[in-house]
Each structure stands twice: as C-alpha cells, then as structure tokens.
Amino acid sequence: MSKIQVVEHPLIQHKLSILRRKETSSKEFRELVDEIGMLMAYEVSRDLPLEDVEIDTPVAHMTAQRLAGKKLAIVPILRAGIGMVDGIYKMIPAARVGHIGMYRDEETMKPVEYLVKMPTDIAERQVFLVDPMLATGGSAILGVDVLKERGVKNIKFVCLVAAPEGVKALQEAHPDIDIFAAALDDHLNEKGYIIPGLGDAGDRLFGTK
Ligand code: URA
After folding, report:
1. Does the annotation mark 108 as catalytic?
2. 137 a known binding residue?
3. Could you tell me the pTM of the whole model?
4. Which of 41, 66, 137, 209 lies at a C-alpha separation of 20 to 30 Å from 48?
5. What is catalysed by this protein (predicted)?
C-alpha cells in the first residue's frame, strides 16, 4: 500500500495556517501556495539520486555531488494545481511541465478529462502530480490513470490539504503512488469540501466566485 507523508516542517505549517484563514487575500494566497510548493519540493525530491562530479573551488580540487540527471515532470491538475507549479519549478528548473484539465460530469459527478498536454518523453520521467486539495480523490485517481496510460511508472502525488476519504480512495485505486500532503484534515462535508480545509483553492488562487 502506498504511504502518505504529512510534511510537518514548521515553515510549511506556519504558512498553511495563514493560507487557511478566510481573511487571507488572493495575492497572499498565491504567494503562500508558491512558497509551500517550494518547501514541499524539498521533501518530495529527497530521494533523487546524486552522482559524483570533479570540480575546482578557488582553492582546491574536490569530488562534489550533483543530481544524476533523473528526468522529472511537474503535472498540475487544472485549475488549482497551477498554483503549485512555480514553487516546485524554482527548485527543479530542469523539470518539464505537463497539464491535465478535468471537469465534473453533472450526471455522473465523476471527473472527465478535457485536456492532456504532456512532454513527449513523459513515460521516461518521474512525475510530481500536483493538486492543492485531495478531497474525494476522483481527480487524483483520474490524473494517475492519465499518466499510467501514457507509460509513466514513477508518480508522486503532491497536495496541500488531504481528506482521509481522498487518501483512502487514491490508495485503493493506485496502491503504488506515494502521497505527500502538508496536512491531513478531518473529513469531507456533504458538498465535498474538506473540513476544516481552506475553501475552494481555485477560487482563492484566482479571485473568482
Ligand atoms: N476542492 C477545493 O478546492 N476545496 C475543497 O475543500 C475540496 C475540493
């Protein structure tokens, strides 16, 4: 079964508390999501392989280390996932970015993909699939389906706030995917909002509604 790792770094927890507050403006919200994305990247990339490289400092020769060139991709689930891309991208500028757009079918209430744009070599890349809210798990599951259909083997799901219902659904559908979250909240309400959560992440990011 996949693991869920709640990243309990004090900086992340502090920023997340400001993010959750209803008084936080869209501008501040965007900045915080960006910063938390950057800090999450630190944890999510912890197992990236290193290789030795010979370098000269101004005073000596040494064997240093660098990333072993593992290919990465950041794939946001539209729309709210976009808010997390830049922070991760700043830490891993060699990554490529794919996009998955989904809408909810009014009859089935299930997510349906309407846009998939991936780097051509996505199958060879390790993918960070990002969406700030893991609520019912429907979008995350479909996002992983889309990636696996394209041959991706190594996927990590990165979110800010997860609900136990979404974690369970994603783990059952895709037991091989590790989940990283800044918080594991209490439950989903009858409208599908995470409680206590932070409201609608897309609306808060983009100042809509
Ligand atoms: N999506 C959101 O943006 N917020 C929630 O609470 C649940 C799903």
Report:
1. yes
2. yes
3. 0.95
4. 137
5. UMP + diphosphate = 5-phospho-alpha-D-ribose 1-diphosphate + uracil
**Residue ID of nearest Cα to ligand 1 atom 4:** 200
Residue with token string 């072993």: 68
Predicted confidence (pLDDT) at residue 109 exceeds the cutoff of 80: no
Given the residues 86, 145, 178, 203, the one annotated as active site: 203
Q: For residues 3 and 205, which has the higher predicted lDDT (pLDDT)?
A: 205
Between β-strands 50-56 and 4-6, what pairing exists: parallel, antiparallel or unpaired? Answer: unpaired
In the 3-class helix/strand/coil scheme, how is 193-206 assigned residue by residue?
CEECCCCCHHHHHH
User: What would the mean pLDDT of 64-79 be, rounded to a whole number?
Assistant: 94
Q: Poorest-confidence range of 10-14, 36-40, 103-107, 198-202?
A: 103-107
* Element of type H or E holding 52: strand 50-56
Q: What DSSP character marks residue 122?
A: G
Ligand 1 first shell, C-beta below 6 A: 80, 133, 135, 192-194, 197, 200-202
| Dihedral sign of CA atoms 129, 33, 90, 102 in order | positive
Annotation marks residue 186 as catalytic: no
Residue 52 annotated as catalytic: no
Name the residue of 79, 131, 194, 205 to mutate for ligand 1: max ligand atoms within 8 A of Cβ: 194
